[in-house]
């Protein structure tokens, strides 16, 4: 029973330990950066305190978005006092209690956007002295309490866009205390004026955004906007020119008046704003007004403009002289969102030859004609030209003849289908060319002059073949993007000339093989190769790797080969890629991963096999054996059925393991323990069974202080919807243990029942066995078992104290007296004082050649006499010597001997002596014969081979003769003395 109790106690201690040891997995959040960055996104729990209660106090960055919290209670973040970055956007918040953030003294960023807040408690932001950015966009706020921001002494950015604010004066009173405020965003509210009730804006405020309100007047003091540098008043449809009368705008560096009723020319006349700092986009400037604007700028003695924005003015065309009267534009001219349908070789710029950047995106341009004419104007300072989002169908030869120093050209997101061979003639300084998202089908050596091109983007076109020498002159090209085309093959010399190519994107094409497609020209420079979404196939018998010469390749993507994926992946496919760090094999149907497949990838750090290897339900041992530098492995939705130590144990640097959507029902803890650096494992949507096979995994996941099991507390039990994996009943795992407990209990009860019976029946036998065992280890053992010469006594006399008189009067004188040489052992005389009586008995029996038992009725009732007799009989059977002599003082019935089976057994086979009583014919003679026979029996060696003859084989002596006259029972084989 004691054993059972200890086992139950150990189970209880283990369960308590599970509760006491903090799990590294979190109930509602995911750790993104060790101990500091956490995400609690799309959780079902509506109680914020429960959501955060298991996060460590070391957290500094917390993202709680896309939830249904409703309310933030008081003291919700008391255990997270080190938070610096907090996102609470998109949580359907309707209320925030006044002490919700009171412990966040270190907080610097707070986002409360995209909620349903209609009011704020005046004390809700108290104690947030370090807050620098506060986002309250997309709520239902109608007003702000006056002192709500009074403690935010370090606040620099306040975003209040997309609310229902109407009282600008109340806003000013609320922000007046913000002595560090730089940005105030009030766009998309219901403000009608800037009336402020004699309260001023903070002097530090330099950026004020008021777009998309209902302003029809400013109604503010002259110097109210005196500190503002950037002022956005766009899309206030009722705001007119008269609103700016008497307003000081002299400090404005950038003013936006798009889509208002402001007459820009009149505005420049009544305002002290610097015309060079006004955005003239969306102010209805047709070419005639634009010319007047240029004249007005000249009148204000503006000789140079750094930037001129003329977007969204409905301009169809600019005459060659339209911008002649404008100040010289040094850098940037924006003509976006107009209605240009031709460029006229940029002749409208005419004298504006200092421009470095021209943007004409979002227009109606149809083509770029040849500009090699006699009267062409060269714009040698123009280095960036942007024609994105037009309708350009073709680029003719010498289309950029007038811009020889162009470095960036953007023709992407058009309808380009045709490029003349000399379309880019003369652009020898071009570094970046964007031709992506067009309809280009052929590349006809149109890049010959682009000898300094560094980046060429041809993504999402309709190219199907790369012809020979297409890129022959692009020796400095480092990035070539041909993704999203229809390329079926590349001519043998199609990639010639790309001696510096580092990043090559061929994803989303129709390549079926890469054996002859990749030129050895860039084998020593290529670092990134993207072949995702092609139609590449391999055979099992591939002799060598097509990537074998790419010694510097660090990033290889082979995901999603169509239509069925990379069904066959030769084990030689990645040979020679010793520098590879990132390998993507997602969305393939690889049927077999050879154990040597990744052998050469000794530098690999990231491997993804998502939605892959449908046929590789069991990964083979050794498949990852050389990936000792791998830190992240993604094997989602692979149908993996087992997590074997033989497969994963070599990933000693692995820190993140994505195993979602697999068929794992159990995971060996030994396998997880073989990954010493594992910090993150994702097992979502994996049917881990809540059975004894995972009892150790449950304990390991709950107790491991370094491994984060993502959403551990949400992992369900497939067989029992009422429980989750973390709390399924592990007691069922001790059913076998219960069986052992039952067996143990039965044994214990049996022992308690049988032991008393055994104690009565076998007590002396057990005692004897014990002492025999002890004697076996003692030096006396051998001495006891040796011959006669080692015996201390001739005989040990075993008798009851009631028979002591006979022993002293008859036995002792006849055996030790009258000239006899016998030495007897008597307990009252020869037992060692202070020694255990049993030890004395054992010593006496084995120190004497014979044991003489003086049997009487009192002897049979004595436990000590019984022990002495049984010890002697054990010695008899153990040593096969006739060491036991029985002397009966008076006749004993068989019934009285029935409990002494060993004595009866001796009596049936051995000699015993009967003391002749006074009733015999000649008592004196009979007694003399008795002592003679007893002396002879003590002297004899008594070996067992002579036991059958007993005393009958003794040499005939006078005593013998007389003994023969006694009654003899040969059939019973013992002597009786009358």
Automatic annotation (TrEMBL):
Annotated segments matching region Disordered: 942-978
Q: List locations, semicolon-separated.
A: Membrane
User: Gene Ontology cellular component?
Assistant: plasma membrane
Q: How does it sit in the membrane?
A: Single-pass type I membrane protein
**A single GO molecular function term of this UniProt record:** signaling receptor activity
TIR domain boundaries: 791-938
Signal peptide location in the record?
1-23
Would you kindly state one Gene Ontology biological process term found in this protein's UniProt entry? signal transduction
Query: Where are stretches of biased composition, namely Basic and acidic residues?
Result: 942-972
Q: Which domain of life is it from?
A: Eukaryota
Keyword field: Glycoprotein, Immunity, Inflammatory response, Innate immunity, Leucine-rich repeat, Membrane, Receptor, Repeat, Signal, Transmembrane, Transmembrane helix
> Transmembrane residues, as ranges?
740-760
Q: What Pfam families would the database entry show?
A: LRR_8 (PF13855), TIR (PF01582)
* Family of this protein: Belongs to the Toll-like receptor family.
Q: What is this protein called?
A: Toll-like receptor 13
Q: Give the species.
A: Gouania willdenowi
């Amino acid at each position: 029973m004691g054993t059972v109790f200890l086992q139950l106690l150990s189970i209880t201690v283990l369960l308590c330990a599970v509760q006491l040891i903090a799990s590294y997995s979190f109930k509602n959040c995911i750790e993104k950066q060790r101990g500091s960055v956490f995400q609690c996104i799309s959780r079902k729990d509506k109680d914020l305190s429960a959501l955060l209660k298991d996060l460590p106090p070391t957290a500094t960055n917390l993202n709680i978005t896309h939830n249904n919290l409703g309310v933030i209670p008081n003291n919700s973040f008391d255990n997270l006092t080190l938070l610096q970055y907090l996102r609470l956007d998109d949580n359907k918040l309707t209320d925030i209690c006044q002490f919700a953030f009171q412990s966040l003294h270190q907080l610097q960023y707070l986002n409360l956007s995209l909620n349903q807040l209609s009011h704020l408690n005046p004390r809700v932001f108290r104690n947030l002295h370090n807050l620098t950015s506060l986002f309250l966009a997309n709520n239902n706020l109608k007003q702000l309490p006056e002192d709500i921001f009074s403690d935010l002494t370090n606040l620099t950015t306040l975003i209040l866009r997309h609310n229902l604010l109407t009282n600008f004066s109340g806003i000013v009173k609320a922000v007046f205390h913000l002595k560090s405020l730089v940005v105030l965003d009030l766009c998309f509210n219901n403000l009608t004026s800037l009336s402020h009730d004699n309260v001023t804006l903070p002097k530090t405020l330099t950026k004020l955004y008021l777009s998309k309100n209902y302003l029809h007047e400013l109604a503010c003091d002259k110097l109210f906007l005196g500190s503002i540098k950037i002022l956005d008043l766009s899309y206030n449809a009722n705001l007119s020119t008269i609103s700016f009368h008497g307003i000081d705008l002299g400090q404005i560096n950038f003013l936006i008046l798009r889509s208002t009723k402001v007459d820009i020319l009149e505005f420049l006349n009544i305002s002290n704003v610097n015309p060079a700092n006004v955005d003239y986009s969306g102010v209805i400037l047709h070419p005639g007004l634009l010319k007047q604007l240029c004249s007005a700028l000249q009148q204000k003695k503006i000789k140079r403009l750094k930037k001129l924005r003329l977007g969204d003015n409905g301009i169809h065309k600019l005459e060659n002289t339209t911008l002649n009267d404008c100040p010289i534009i040094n850098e940037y001219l924006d003509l976006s969102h107009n209605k240009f349908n031709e460029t006229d070789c940029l002749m409208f710029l005419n004298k504006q030859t200092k421009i470095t950047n021209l943007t004409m995106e979002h227009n109606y341009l149809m083509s770029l004609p040849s500009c090699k004419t006699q009267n062409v104007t060269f714009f040698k300072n123009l280095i960036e030209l942007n024609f994105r989002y037009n309708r350009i169908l073709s680029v003719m030869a010498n289309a950029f003849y007038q811009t020889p120093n162009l470095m960036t050209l953007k023709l992407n997101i058009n309808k380009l289908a045709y490029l003349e061979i000399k379309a880019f003639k003369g652009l020898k300084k071009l570094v970046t060319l964007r031709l992506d998202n067009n309809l280009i089908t052929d590349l006809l050596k149109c890049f010959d002059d682009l000898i300094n091109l560094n980046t060429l983007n041809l993504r999402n076109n309709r190219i199907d073949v790369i012809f020979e020498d297409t890129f022959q002159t692009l020796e400095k090209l480092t990035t070539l993007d041909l993704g999203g085309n229809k390329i079926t093959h590349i001519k043998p010399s199609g990639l010639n000339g790309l001696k510096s190519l580092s990043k090559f994107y061929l994803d989303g094409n129709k390549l079926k093989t890469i054996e002859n497609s990749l030129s050895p020209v860039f084998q020593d420079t290529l670092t990134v190769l993207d072949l995702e979404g092609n139609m590449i196939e391999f055979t099992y018998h591939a002799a060598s790797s097509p990537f074998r010469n790419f010694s510097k390749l660090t990033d290889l993507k082979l995901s999603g080969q169509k239509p069925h994926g990379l069904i066959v992946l030769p084990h030689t496919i990645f040979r020679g890629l010793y520098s590879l760090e990132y390998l993507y094999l997602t969305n393939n149907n690889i049927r077999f991963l050879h154990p040597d497949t990744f052998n050469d990838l000794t530098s690999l750090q990231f491997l993804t096999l998502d939605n892959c290897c449908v046929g590789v339900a069991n990964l083979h041992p050794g498949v990852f054996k050389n990936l000792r530098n791998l830190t992240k492995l993604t094997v989602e939705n692979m149908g993996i059925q087992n997590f074997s130590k033989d497969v994963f144990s070599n990933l000693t640097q692995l820190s993140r393991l994505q195993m979602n959507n697999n068929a794992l029902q159990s995971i060996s803890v030994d396998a997880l323990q073989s990954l010493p650096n594992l910090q993150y494992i994702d097992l979502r949507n994996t049917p881990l069974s809540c059975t004894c096979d995972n009892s150790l995994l449950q304990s390991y996941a709950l107790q491991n202080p370094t491994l984060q099991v993502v959403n551990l507390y949400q992992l369900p039990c497939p067989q029992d919807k009422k429980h989750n994996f973390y709390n399924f009943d592990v007691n069922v795992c001790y059913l076998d243990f219960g069986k052992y407990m039952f067996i143990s209990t039965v044994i214990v009860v049996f022992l308690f029942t049988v032991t008393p019976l055994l104690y009565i029946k076998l007590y002396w036998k057990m005692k004897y066995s014990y002492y025999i065992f002890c004697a076996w280890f003692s030096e006396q053992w051998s001495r006891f078992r040796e011959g006669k010469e080692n015996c201390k006594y001739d005989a040990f006399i075993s008798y009851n104290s009631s028979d002591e008189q006979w022993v002293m009067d008859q036995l002792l004188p006849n055996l030790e007296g009258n000239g006899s040489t016998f030495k007897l052992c008597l307990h009252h005389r020869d037992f060692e004082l202070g020694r255990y009586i049993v030890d004395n008995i054992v010593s006496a029996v084995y120190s004497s050649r014979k044991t003489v038992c003086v049997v009487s009725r009192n002897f049979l009732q004595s436990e000590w006499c019984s022990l002495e007799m049984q010890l002697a009989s054990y010695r008899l059977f153990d040593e096969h010597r006739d060491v036991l002599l029985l002397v009966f003082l008076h006749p004993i019935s068989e019934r009285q001997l029935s409990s002494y089976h060993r004595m009866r057994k001796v009596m049936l086979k051995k000699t015993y002596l009967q003391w002749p009583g006074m009733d015999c014919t000649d008592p004196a003679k009979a007694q003399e014969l008795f002592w003679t026979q007893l002396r002879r029996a003590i002297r004899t060696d008594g070996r067992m081979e002579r036991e059958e003859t007993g005393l009958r084989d003794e040499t005939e002596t006078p005593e013998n003769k007389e003994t023969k006259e006694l009654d003899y029972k040969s059939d019973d084989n013992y002597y009786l003395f009358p």
